[in-house]
Design a protein that fits this description.
The chain is α/β, with parallel strands linked by helices. It is built from ten helices and ten strands.
């Protein structure tokens, strides 16, 4: 198995409206990859297809070498895919501790699985807020909790949709440091975000999407050598 997640020729959309047409993406084990593009180009739609929330009209999606397009979302998640969704979507009426332990499962069979203790060591602020309800947290704390919750499932692949959207510069820096730490630990990650200067420091390769089609794929070295790509596919 050369790729952990593979998307080939994916087409899908909503109702009669086609959003993705010929989407390609691949992530190798232990790699950090990004999916980049302006708003409305199909990034979140790609994730919804990966998690079985949208049917693949054509093409295929493989995870751990197995086709997952057409599988129910719960089964896909239990295979070891974890999403930190845009908007965080934590449970407001559960405490920080309850939000975390509710998702505890060693889905990838790690010898040193993520536990409550490991997560609050990674995010000390969550230890301080352990008994606070989800709706009592700041936006940055909620994002830490959403990442911690995903890690508690011990996924093969961690996906973050708008990883630092709406966060203060200080919290964004903390999130980037955590992602760098996870990379050093060998965690496979797919990140959607707009802060290219930060992404190129942590990611191995990048995919640009425009109008539902992957239009450029390359390494961080290739991307930084061609800054015109940033303006072409990310500029307003």
């Amino acid at each position: 198995m050369s790729e952990l997640l593979s998307i080939e020729g994916l087409e899908t959309g909503y109702g009669q409206s086609r959003v993705l047409s010929g989407m390609h993406l691949g992530i190798a084990p232990g790699e950090v990859a990004t999916l980049l593009g302006r708003n409305g180009m199909g990034k979140t739609t790609t994730l919804r297809a990966v998690f079985g929330q949208l049917p693949a009209w054509s093409g295929e999606i493989r995870f751990l070498g197995e086709r997952i397009d057409g599988l129910p979302t719960e089964r896909i998640a239990r295979m070891g895919l974890a999403l930190v969704p845009e908007g965080r979507q934590i449970f407001p009426n559960l405490t920080v501790r309850e939000n975390l332990v509710a998702f505890a499962e060693n889905r990838c069979g790690r010898a040193d699985p993520w536990t409550l203790e490991r997560v609050v060591t990674l995010f000390p602020r969550l230890a301080e807020r352990a008994d606070n309800m989800g709706n009592q947290l700041s936006g940055g704390e909620q994002q830490m909790l959403a990442i911690g919750r995903a890690l508690m499932t011990n996924p093969h692949l961690l996906i973050l949709d708008e990883a630092t959207e709406g966060l203060s510069p200080m919290i964004r820096r903390e999130i980037w440091l955590v992602l760098a730490q996870l990379k050093r630990d060998g965690q496979s990650i797919l990140v959607i975000d707009k802060y290219l200067n930060e992404l190129v420091r942590v990611a191995d390769h990048h995919v640009f999407i425009e109008k539902g089609t992957s239009v450029w794929t390359g390494t961080t070295k290739a991307l930084t050598a061609n800054p015109s790509l940033w303006q072409r596919y990310m500029g307003v």
